[in-house]
Amino acid sequence: MVDVYLNEKYVGVVDNSNEFIDTIRKKRRDGTISPELNISYNEELNEVSVETNKGRLRRPIIIVENGVSKLTEELIEKIKSGEKKWADLVEEGVIEYLDAAEEENTLIALDEEEITKDHTHLEISPVTVLGVVTSLVPYSNFGSSSRLIRGSKIQKQALGLYATNFLLRMDTDASILHYPQKPIVKSFMHDAFGYDEHPSGQNLTIAVMSYEGYNMQDSIILNKGSVQRGLARSTFFKPFSLSEVRYSGGLMDEISVPDPEVKGYKSEKDYKNLEEDGIIFPEANVGTDDVLIGRTSPPRFLSGADEFNVAVTTRRESSIAIGEGNKGLVDAVFLTENDEGNRLVQVRLREQRIPEIGDKFASRHGQKGVVGLLVPHEDMPFSDKGITPDLIFSPHSIPSRMTVSHLLEILTGKVGSLRGSQIDATTFDTPDEGELRKELLGMGFREDGTEVFYNGLTGERFKAKIYTGNIYYFKLKHMVANKLHARASGRIQLLTRQPVEGRAMGGGLRLGEMEKDCLVAHGASLLLKERFDSDKTIVHVCEECGLIGTYDSYKNKPLCPRCGSNSKVSSVELSYAFKLLLDELKSLMVYPRIKLKGKF
């Protein structure tokens, strides 16, 4: 007897589970039962689950019966002529949708040639094992799965034209690539996805070689001449917003140029760009600490005694200013109202981002890298045909990662650019490498994709032939201008007296165990002393009971709260976080005793 569950609720038992499941499937395929139902058998629990719930992920697969696919050549011709549509195939039981549970009880063939008597289903196309973004990667059957996952994640971080109405939007972290190009090497999904309408990268000429050690590991070298001609330029948009908040008691904020008598007034030059209404004008060039929207707020605390006080009229400064390290031009100013009907002012800042050392780039094959050097055009290596690469890529990034797809795209991109057409390299349906090599040879190039290169600095010919071609590269949103962070002394937390966290807050730079090991290895252990005492505090410890004492300013000497003024109290330097731990232990009625020893 096998238990049966409908949408995870027990509904009864059946004698023969296989017969029951087959009957339900037949009825689903002939249209008697809803096609949205899924049924599966769990061998471990010996139970049948029938699911009709919402929110299940289901995918279409061709049905196979007695080792023969139900999608015949005759049906394919009818689909091509428009006589039959997708819905007809589902209704006629040629294609069915399976969820993850039912898929466990199936054997799915990738290709029609693979079908045996044991197979129950056939993939519509081998590409359907990939997702939408992953199937945009060309030659992905020549790369490992881990690189493919990275490749799909990288495409989501690439800069392009993310929305055509970007000038009317106030997005938090928006970047627009200035000259996006459609890729030379594409997959079928580029057409289905309409990728050419909103591309996210550029076709670069690449040389696979080492150059002066500036492209070690995951670094890349860019041609400064290419950058000056507009390669990988983008605009970064940052929004700021401020509203007039209405407080209880009838008081409210006021957007205006703050009066010099206001509490917390900045310097006069910080407000220099504000107009009469307290709002900055469009196209103003602003830098660190410049105020974008001026605002004053009522005092924070009001008590009964303050009502007749002159200080009540003193308002406080609550303007919005550009934070540390930000600069740019005011792109747009929007005046509107928020949900409560209060006045809302939004300012968008824009900044042109030209590729610099530290900016992140990547190909579609998970080969990501950071710019290590920008080389002047005249110093770049060049081929015997006079071609100077835009990007120099390290050959050491290939063997361990086994991204053969990256190398194949370079060769195919070279053929495509010389031919002047896009080449389709969809997964499992890629063009023949031998044919591409022959075509390259016919165009007067070496068939293996290598060329003779000369050193741009000395003019000498390189002994090795350099592998070169064209590849589609992305500029990623991880730009060094957004990540630069430095700090001397600054804001600290009230509780632990340690620096606050985060770049936006002007917080501290955390040194972990590994950073500490580096400093020790460099012999800079004194720097550690300075780095690790951000919360250094001097406490008075009683030598008899081991408790932390206090300092009696009246008698001008330290005092133990337990042993009195006669005990011997010493000053000890320790971390404030440790002192806090001792206080927390005391609150738990635990007696933390500090035993002191002499230094010598």
Give your account of this protein's structure.
- There is one protein chain.
- This protein is of the alpha+beta class and 600 residues long.
- Strand 32 (548-552) and strand 33 (557-559) form a beta hairpin.
- The N and C termini lie far apart (82 Å).
- A six-stranded mixed beta barrel has the order 12-26-13-24-23-30. Strands 5, 6, 7, 8 and 9 form a five-stranded mixed beta sheet that branches. Strands 10-14-22-21-16 form a five-stranded antiparallel beta sheet, with no helix packed on it.
- It contains twelve helices and 34 strands.
- The longest helix has 16 residues, at 404-419.
- The relative contact order is 0.10.
- The mean pLDDT is 90.
- The protein folds into four domains: 2-124, Hypothetical Protein Ta0175, Chain: A, domain 2 (Alpha-Beta Complex); 136-158 and 178-233 and 357-475, DNA-directed RNA polymerase, subunit 2, domain 6 (Dna-directed Rna Polymerase Ii 140kd Polypeptide, Chain: B, Domain 6); 235-353, RNA polymerase II, Rpb2 subunit, wall domain (OB fold (Dihydrolipoamide Acetyltransferase, E2P)); 536-587, Alpha-Beta Complex (DCoH-like), CATH 3.90.1800.10.
- 18% of the residues lie in helices and 26% in strands.
- The protein is extended.
- Helix 8 crosses helix 9 (433-442).
